Amino acid sequence: MLTHPITVLPGVGKAKAKLAAKLNLETIADVLHSYPRTYKDFTKVISPDQAEIGSEGLFYGRLIDLNEREVRSRRRLIQARLLGSHKALTLSWFTVPYRRGPSYQYQQLARVGELWVYGQVKQGFYGPEIASGEYYTSRPKHLGLVPVYPLVAGITNRMRLEWIEFALKYLDQVEECLPAHLFDQFMGRKQAVRAIHFPKNDAELAQARKRLIFEEFFLFHLSLGAGSQIKESIAHKPDGKLTQAFLAGLPFELTPGQMRAIRDVREDMESKLQMRRLIQGDVGSGKTVIAQYATLKAVDSCGQAAIMVPTEILARQMFERMEAAFRPLGVKIALLIGKTTAKQREQILEDLASGELAVVVGTHALITDEVKFANLTLAVIDEQHRFGVRQRTALSEKGSADLLVMSATPIPRSLALTLYGDLNTTIIRDLPKGRKPIDTRLIHPNQRDDVYRFVVKRVKAGEQAFVVFPLVEESDKLDVRAAIQEMEMLTQHQLAEVRVGLVHGQMGKAKDEVMQDFYEKKLDVLISTTVIEVGMNVPSATVMVIENADRFGLAQLHQLRGRVGRADQQAYCFLIADPKTDHAKQRLDIIRHTNDGLKIAEEDLKLRGPGDLLGTRQSGEPWFKLADIVRDQPLLELAAREARKLVLADPDLDNHPILAAEVKRQQP
Predict the structure, then answer these.
(1) Structure pTM?
(2) Where residue 470 sits, what CATH number does that domain have?
(3) How many other β-carbons are positioned within 10 Å of the β-carbon of residue 253?
(4) Which of 415, 425, 579, 634 could bridge 550 with an S-S bond, Cβ 3.0-4.6 Å?
(5) What residues have CB less than 8 Å from 165, skipping those under 6 apart?
């Protein structure tokens, strides 16, 4: 019955079902698991004698002085008073009748002597008043905490209450999905589903929410890791000639964070279990060295390594850095991107399949079926948040490959547990010696010309600069300069003396050519939208100008700032903005006063919430119906631990068939 369509509900035909589908309600199970967004407190019926300004609740009394009058163009005002023992509340409703004569609402009210009204008491012209209150002509069926559901036009809360009442008749068919050892910690599933809709009191509601929030987190983590979290792989040999020579020949001293990351990777790769590790570090923290070490460790053990990055220009940059490190060691490496010629591509594919080629760098083309490896033992994925769970898994599954993921996006612990729940995490917190903190300044738009004079001065000293705008085209709603339109003005006026290029998200392949010209110093200034947010490494770029900086999120601003200061020179970030709201000022103050990416990310999560960062499923539903990764972090961490323990004991959930079915339903 739970899988039956919503049309089995009383009063739900094809038209109502179509409306319900907008709320993702298609089956009886959907109705049961679509939870209230809030509750009305009907636990206590209040007399008008006790009405206080600002109070909200269910009021009951005798209805007196009912009248209706036209106020403007068919619009009518119904007024009455709700009388208690000594005092009365004024009631008012606006209505638009479909025909002449008294409105249906007026006629309905005229037939009753007593009324129940839910609403908030405000100060009216004649004293305490409830405007547009929800009224009941007989005692409300549901007293207590009454659920309020998400709605669309054509579906009322009363309809949804009727639907859930009907659906609850089949509650016995809802099966418990949690492992038995968790029963003592949480309310049962049936009881929780009933209580979330019709709680007896606040305490029962809290227990129901706790159970269902844990379940959401638990199923989410299992959907990430079930069947793939713990696998056997090749145990790589202890550090050999290549890794030893590489570490000994580094022209700089490793930071404590880099040494810790290398230790973690070494332990993972020498284990018989598959490595699934996320290396998280701010821009410029030296994550590439970790990838180089891991790659050489794979080659030392006669394995192959594949490094996947999101764009061709970043693949080219990664290839150049890898090749420079590996050439002295005699390790062969190739670049596989869209611009690779057919002849080169054919040779690379042949060499990978035969084992002649040890290392390849490329884009998502690496996960296509035609790319085959003789012995892939390491998959490295850079800037992971551009790839989905399945994409990263697809590369590592081309062999018994260890998986190393690298992200420069600062991720708070709660969000990391959600996005990367199937990975172990190592954080590199320190920057290489000699790096100077970026000088970040908030600039009023009146001082823009001074900023661009400074840009020209730095360019003439042999440096480069970025200028970033928030949108590609002028918006009617937002007073934002568009990069395409503004470039012409900048090139003709403030930046007339220097070489300028433009990139934006709608350019296609031409974008890579412009960025490559900037990388090769054929351009002095790159005007861009946020397409340069990830991965662009230009050591001679020392100035970042961000126009309308108050339009960007905190983490976005930090990522953009990280495009400069990649060498030993002093770098500058100018935030041009005139923030109008306290919220915008708060964001810019945080970015101005700290360079700590993790601290910034935590603040960003608090300010924006997880919705923007997590996104939605393909169905359009948010990932979590009840859970909030910031508010519910203790339950999130407990769910992550329990999911990991369960997958260790039962990788494919063979001993938990009900849970396995739920996980399959949740699969991202």
Answers:
(1) 0.64
(2) 3.40.50.300
(3) 9
(4) 579
(5) none
